[in-house]
């Protein structure tokens, strides 16, 4: 059944390498469906078995993610052994449904892009699983937590492995569901719990709902894009849509529309402007969840979608520019918000938003940016996971406090966390030779490629972003680990704390991740290894010349990074950090309130929406219900009148019948003569 | 065959009207059944008349069926009336309005 679309697309693809058609899978690749099936089955078992498996359920979750990680690595090794031309492999699963001449098959597509994600998701996911065993040790719902984590991994793998937009959409909704369940994980305070606990519980549930609903707005974009693809190509498989886009079979107007719809979808999932407001609130979930959402799953999906649909954006320069602009705006917005937040996790959330902005900017630059966007995504995945897990370790030590104004001087109490987080900090700053340098610097350089004013604007923003990143990440690092201790071992408003290093189950993942943060970027940059590896998907990009020499850009970036670090050092280590929030200027106040994004959303979307709902409700109640109920009342009244004729007397009934017969007779006779 | 067809129809109409009035005005269920029979026979008369007029047997077959159905109906109707009489000691249909509404 799959044969005909494949044959069709390979015919189209004779001259193109970018969206190469898949060859049938063999070896370990043919088992790729197990990557998804095993964590999904584990999630099912953990959810269905209930409290019976509370004692060992978390280890089943860890085992499932370990299995996926191992299989992912085996497939990676098999692919590395194959020729570059044979690195796009298709696994047909089954025919899902057909309607008219639309035939929807489900299948997996293993290519360098999806495999990169598989390795990132499963390896980082596995480490987060291990970490969570210890982090969630005291939670009575630990088994349920692991079920959701496995569900998250399974959904994300479906998203990246699917060979069509519809398969992607299944995973897309799956990660949405899993994130909803995990963000609101702590929403189960009983009615007799203390008031503060019930309040937090409600807040957590609201954060989960917010993430879910904002993601649904993005999903509308994906659905519209799929409908447009069906209208234009008659299929939603990558093998049909992308070659058609590349060959110019789809009019530019339609391509622009599809591109903008995809961008909307990506904005929702990746928390990009203007749909970014959910990400900060998503910190309500347990910290390992934040690590998983921000590093390996969910928010990276938007970048994946854009890069995967590269052919669409190349045919639609307007949509491509929109991607770059959205990326640039989010990059600055996230960085500014990160500079002002006092909640450690919210700084990291803003940082993710900002770094994903870098990736979107890269993806919006066209073929020269795709590989670097994915490269940054990969390196960021490792060091952001590490930073989040490090933050979790700090929370674990500090009685779940997140207010950085109450930290300080923790480096002696938790040396391993300090060192590993320090590596993550240097990596995200882009200090050579740590891994962030290799990927971020390339995006900044690529942003300077082009004609006219565009490279100057985008490049400058990317450059400034690097300085801001350095400032807010240094601020975070210094406020937690350096300066004088601002925490107390006596009871006060924030509670007493006794900082201590976390157990080995938590520190081991941190140490492993810091190895990746140290060396991954450099290792994959040797001979442009990663870029070459991605070429079967992203195509070979001609090397563009930046408007400034590359060395100047690199030097400027490093200079800005150093300025950022020094500024943070002066403000948060040399000077005493006040433990209460100080009055600040307009920009800082705005950043503290997420740039009033909630207020804006409320004004432009929520209030009109509520008005619409009220109007619809009123018209339903008075116009529709009124009509329906009026009709019913009328009928009932007529019925009551007619019921009086039902006296139960046989002779009356005979009279009616006779009368009716006579009337019928008269009618017949009258019509005859 | 010198009697005009109108005479048969008029006779049938008179018979039907008598039957109908019997059913409408009398309270006794058995008398009412007799009225029903009268109406049926009026119809039968018309059927047979038209059958003769058209020169085929369709009407007579219909009349035959009417008789069969009438016989069956009387069997059922009478047994219902008898069982009602046994419980209520009355055959007046005006006393029987349990199926009201």
What would the principal axes of the Cα set say about the shape of chain B?
A: elongated
Largest interface: which pair?
A-B, 10 and 15 residues
| Strand residues, percent of chain B | under 5%
Structural class of chain B: mainly alpha
Strand order of the largest sheet of chain A: 1-2-3
- Kindly state the number of beta strands of chain B: 0
Please state the CA-atom Rg of chain B, rounded to the nearest Å.
17 Å
- Count up the helices of chain B: 3
> Which blocks of ≥5 consecutive residues of chain B have pLDDT under 50?
none
Number-wise, the strands of chain A total 3
Class by alpha and beta content of chain A = mainly alpha
| Poorly predicted ranges of chain A | 1-18
- N→C terminal distance of chain B: 51 Å
- Overall helicity of chain A: over 70%
Integer-rounded radius of gyration of chain A: 30 Å
> Beta-strand level of the residues of chain A, as a percent range?
under 5%
User: Could you describe the largest sheet of chain B, including whether it forms a barrel?
Assistant: none
């Amino acid at each position: 059944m799959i044969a005909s679309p494949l044959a069709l697309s390979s015919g189209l693809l004779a001259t193109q390498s970018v969206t190469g058609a898949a060859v049938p899978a063999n070896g370990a690749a043919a088992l790729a469906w197990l990557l998804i099936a095993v964590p999904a089955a584990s999630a099912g078992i953990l959810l269905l078995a209930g409290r019976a498996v509370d004692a060992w359920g978390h280890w089943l979750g860890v085992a499932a993610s370990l299995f996926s990680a191992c299989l992912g690595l085996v497939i990676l090794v098999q692919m590395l052994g194959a020729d570059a031309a044979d690195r796009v492999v298709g696994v047909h699963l089954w025919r899902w449904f057909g309607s008219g001449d639309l035939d929807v098959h489900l299948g997996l597509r293993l290519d360098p892009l999806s495999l990169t994600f598989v390795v990132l998701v499963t390896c980082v996911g596995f480490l987060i699983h291990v970490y969570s065993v210890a982090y969630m040790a005291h939670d009575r719902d630990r088994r349920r937590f692991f079920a959701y984590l496995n569900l998250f991994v399974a959904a994300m793998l479906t998203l990246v492995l699917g060979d069509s937009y519809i398969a992607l959409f299944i995973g897309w909704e799956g990660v949405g569901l899993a994130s909803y369940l995990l963000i609101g994980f702590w929403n189960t305070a009983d009615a007799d719990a203390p008031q503060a606990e019930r309040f937090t519980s409600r807040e957590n549930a609201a954060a989960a709902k917010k993430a879910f609903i904002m993601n649904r707005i993005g999903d509308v974009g994906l659905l519209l894009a799929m409908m447009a693809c069906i209208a234009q190509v008659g299929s939603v498989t990558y093998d049909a849509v992308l070659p058609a886009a590349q060959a110019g079979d789809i009019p530019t107007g339609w391509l622009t529309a599809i591109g903008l719809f995809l961008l909307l979808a990506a904005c929702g999932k990746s928390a990009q402007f203007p749909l970014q407001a959910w990400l900060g609130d998503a910190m309500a979930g347990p910290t390992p969840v934040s690590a998983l959402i921000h590093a390996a799953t969910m928010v990276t999906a938007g970048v994946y979608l854009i890069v995967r649909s590269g052919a669409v954006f190349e045919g639609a320069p307007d949509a491509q520019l929109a991607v770059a602009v959205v990326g640039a705006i989010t990059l600055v917005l996230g960085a500014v918000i990160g500079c002002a937040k006092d909640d450690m996790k919210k700084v990291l959330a803003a940082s993710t938003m900002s770094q994903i902005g870098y990736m979107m900017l890269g993806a919006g630059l066209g073929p020269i940016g795709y590989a670097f966007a994915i490269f940054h995504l990969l390196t960021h995945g490792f060091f952001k996971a590490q930073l989040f897990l490090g933050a979790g370790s700090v929370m674990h030590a500090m009685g779940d406090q997140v207010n950085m104004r109450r930290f300080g001087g923790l480096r002696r109490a938790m040396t391993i966390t300090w060192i590993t987080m320090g590596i993550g900090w240097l990596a995200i700053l882009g200090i050579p030779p740590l891994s962030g340098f290799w990927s971020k610097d390339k995006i900044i350089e690529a942003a300077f490629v082009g004609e006219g004013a565009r490279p100057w604007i985008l490049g400058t923003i990317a450059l400034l972003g690097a300085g801001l990143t350095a400032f807010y990440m240094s601020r975070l690092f210094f406020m937690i680990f350096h300066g004088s201790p601002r925490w107390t071992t006596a009871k006060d408003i924030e509670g007493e704390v006794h900082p201590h290093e976390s157990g080995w189950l938590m520190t081991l993942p941190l140490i492993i991740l810091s190895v990746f943060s140290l060396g991954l970027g450099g290792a994959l940059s040797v001979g442009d290894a990663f870029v070459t590896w991605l070429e079967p998907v992203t195509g070979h990009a001609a090397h563009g010349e930046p408007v400034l020499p590359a060395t100047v850009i690199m030097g400027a970036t490093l200079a800005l990074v150093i300025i950022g670090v020094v500024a943070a050092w002066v403000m948060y280590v040399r000077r005493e950090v006040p433990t209460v929030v100080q009055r600040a200027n307009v920009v800082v106040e705005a950043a503290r309130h997420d740039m009033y994004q909630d207020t804006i959303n409320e004004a432009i979307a929520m209030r009109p929406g509520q008005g619409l709902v009220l109007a619809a409700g009123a018209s339903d109640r008075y116009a529709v219900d009124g009509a329906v109920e009026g009709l019913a009342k009328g009928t009932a009244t007529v019925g009551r009148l007619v019921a009086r004729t039902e006296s139960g007397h046989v002779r009356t009934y005979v009279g009616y019948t006779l009368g009716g017969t006579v009337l019928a007779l008269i009618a017949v006779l009258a019509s005859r003569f | 065959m010198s009697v005009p067809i109108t005479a048969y129809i008029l006779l049938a109409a008179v018979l039907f009207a008598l039957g109908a009035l019997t059913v409408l005005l009398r309270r006794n269920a058995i008398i009412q059944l007799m009225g029903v029979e009268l109406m049926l026979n009026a119809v039968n008369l018309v059927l047979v008349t038209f059958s003769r007029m058209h020169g085929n047997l369709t009407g007579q077959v219909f009349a035959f069926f009417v008789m069969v159905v009438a016989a069956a109906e009387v069997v059922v109707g009478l047994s219902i009336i008898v069982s009602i009489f046994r419980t209520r000691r009355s055959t007046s249909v005006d006393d029987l309005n349990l199926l009201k509404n």
